[in-house]
From TrEMBL:
Organism domain of life: Archaea
Name used for this protein in its record: Glycosyltransferase
Glycosyl transferase family domain residues: 195-365
Pfam family, one: Glycos_transf_1
GO molecular-function terms, A-Z: glycosyltransferase activity
Keywords for this protein: Transferase
């Protein structure tokens, strides 16, 4: 099978979107012939980005002469249009069987073209949200029009699947849910926890709680900080590590820490770090938290990479009791708390910190289940489903 993977984004960004894209292209390449059509990026920058995410350059890469600029919506709209035109020109010359994309602007652009100008290949769309519910840029009418273009849909959550069917009229047999995954190669042969704590100069802590990911409001990091303010009064030997966040988001979190009068020595803000360092920080920790808020994207439309990274490290997980979390987790490998309830989050963390038997059970179960959620496993399932669906297209 030959695929063109089409996605326009700033590949220099330290984002889960870029991480997921590179991992998917890399895994697809192991089982099919793949051409990745992206915006322009220098070869040296590409190598640096792949090193950052712990990947090698094993795919064909078509770098189109367009850069993404999102500060001005009119310029962004024009640049996305230019990228789509360039992509269609290249696709006309590529001998591929399918176009695989997670780029809504690409399928929306195609929906505005007459049939004779549209790609001849079958189009597979991987939605990561329902845009008219999560973005002011897209109306229901626009989304319905765009979603008439793809032949198959591979949403990352059941919440997206339900809305595709109920709100957007997509037939069930055209949809296959595939949660995100993890690169297990990064988790092999890691040093022991005590060695890593020494390496990262983290001392004087019996227990370490970690959050790794974006600090956007819907991620619920603010609720975790408030919960930690309570925990730190009961367990003064417990530290909190926060990995990720833009400069603006970090400033907001630092202000919240000051407002709550939390000892700054007990909270370690790491910013964005390489994937190898993320893995080491997870390995030296004792518990991972996913405190998503009750927004549509936080509750239904997400499949967070951190969840699978926590599992790959065998971390006990404390997660918001939301449908998106329940798609992967249950009581055998996580403890749940009421979303947006800092007091309940603090209580669940405190109880788990003091329940050694429960922590060991959660650790074992996560290490057992994670093999179902690698990027390679995801790609194999997707390709198998595409092949089985081919007769019905």
């Amino acid at each position: 099978m030959k695929l063109a993977y089409v996605y326009f984004n700033d590949l220099n960004k330290n984002s889960a979107n870029v991480n997921q894209t590179f991992n998917m292209v890399s895994s697809f390449t192991k089982y099919s012939e793949v051409y990745f059509l992206s915006g322009y990026i220098k070869k040296s920058d590409l190598k640096r980005r792949l090193d950052f995410f712990g990947l090698s350059h094993n795919f064909y890469h078509v770098r189109l002469l367009t850069l993404l600029f999102t500060k001005n919506k009119f310029i962004e709209f024009a640049l996305r249009g230019i990228y789509c035109i360039q992509s269609l020109v290249v696709l006309n010359y590529l001998n591929v069987d399918y176009i695989y994309t997670r780029d809504f602007s690409f399928i929306y652009f195609i929906s505005n073209l007459p049939c004779f100008l549209r790609p001849k290949q079958k189009i597979i769309y991987e939605p990561h949200t329902i845009y008219h519910k999560s973005s002011s840029k897209v109306s229901l009418a626009h989304e319905r029009k765009a979603l008439k273009v793809p032949d198959l849909f591979i949403p990352i959550s059941n919440g997206i699947k339900i809305d595709l069917i109920q709100n957007l009229g997509i037939k069930t047999n055209k949809i296959y849910v595939a949660a995100d995954g993890v690169n297990m190669d990064l988790f092999n042969n890691l040093p022991e926890k005590l060695f890593l704590r020494e390496k990262h100069s983290i001392k004087g802590a019996d227990s370490i709680i970690i959050y790794a990911g974006s600090f956007k409001k819907w991620k619920g990091v603010d609720f975790l900080i408030k919960a930690y303010a309570t925990i730190s009064t009961m367990c003064d030997d417990t530290k909190l590590i926060l990995v990720g966040g833009s400069l603006g988001d970090i400033a907001r979190i630092e202000q919240l820490i000051d407002d709550l009068h939390i000892n700054k020595k007990n909270i370690i803000l790491k910013g964005f770090v390489s994937q190898s360092e993320v893995v080491e920080l997870l390995k030296l920790s004792d518990m991972g938290v996913i405190p998503n808020a009750k927004t549509a994207i936080g509750a239904k439309y997400t499949s967070p990479l951190k969840l699978f990274e926590y599992m790959a490290c065998g971390l006990p997980i404390v997660a918001s009791n939301l449908p998106a979390m329940r798609e992967i987790l249950d009581e055998t490998n996580a403890v749940f708390f009421e979303a947006e309830n800092s007091e309940d989050l603090a209580n669940q963390i405190y109880c788990l910190l003091n329940d050694i038997e429960k922590k060991v059970d959660l650790q074992h179960n996560n290490l057992t289940k994670i093999n179902n959620f690698t990027w390679d496993a995801r790609v194999k399932k997707i390709l198998k489903w595409i092949n089985s669906s081919n007769n019905h297209l």
